[in-house]
Design goal:
Layout: H1 2-21, H2 25-30, H3 46-59, H4 64-73, H5 75-81, H6 89-98, H7 101-118, E1 128-139, E2 147-149, E3 152-162, E4 167-175, H8 184-187, E5 192-195
Parallel strand pairs: 1-5
Antiparallel strand pairs: 1-3, 2-3, 3-4
Length: 199
């Protein structure tokens, strides 16, 4: 019984992993390459990084160390998710320090365009509605740009949300103490109606 449940769990993970990766395939072909920040070449491509992040969330790993252990010991993770030849813990954390922000924005923008083409438009009689808000997110102390106050680093995410389709439309990151008002114009396009709080 335990083996059967474990086998079913692996099949579900494999199926979910494939379904989540499918809409990303074309976007990954045009994504800018990851560039090493130091002298050593990176041991993972951006696709390897994205594979690891998807798997991390599917399996609800507790930490990066737990994920690296799974990439070494789990058959599916080792054969499908991990880079060819495996990945060492130090190399894994080195690549994550770059975060692949430019590549993730490329993927996000592409997925947003795809989603708006296939999702039905609700509330069409109200026009093109965009909810706009900013939220603080905790940052690690090494993120020097995420200025908030002494001893605390926070970034602020400024989000435009497509109410008609129920998906995010645009996103900007700033330091935690940045004002929200300057981000309203970049989050709205002509003909859209912004829905926001009074601030």
């Amino acid at each position: 019984m335990v083996r059967t449940i474990a086998r079913l769990g692996k099949q579900l993970t494999a199926r979910s992993f494939g379904r989540l990766l499918k809409p990303l395939r074309k976007l990954l072909e045009t994504a800018p390459p990851l560039i090493a920040g130091g002298d050593r070449p990176l041991q993972m491509t951006f696709q390897d990084q994205l594979n690891a992040l998807i798997y991390f969330h599917l399996e609800e790993h507790e930490s990066g160390r737990h994920l690296v252990q799974s990439l070494e010991e789990n058959d599916f993770a080792r054969d499908v998710v991990a880079p060819q030849g495996g990945i060492q813990k130090s190399s894994f954390f080195e690549i994550l320090s770059t975060r692949g922000l430019e590549q993730l924005v490329h993927v996000y923008d592409g997925l947003m365009v795809e989603a708006t083409q296939v999702l039905p438009k609700g509330h069409a009689h109200l026009g093109d509605l965009r909810a706009i808000d900013g939220s603080l997110i905790d940052a690690v102390l090494s993120m020097e740009w995420a200025e908030y106050r002494d001893g605390s680093k926070k970034a602020k995410v400024h989000l435009g949300f497509d109410i008609n389709r129920g998906v995010p439309s645009r996103i900007f990151l700033s330091e935690g103490k940045a004002d929200e008002r300057p981000f309203v114009s970049p989050l709205l396009e002509p003909g859209q109606t912004g829905v926001m709080d009074r601030y």
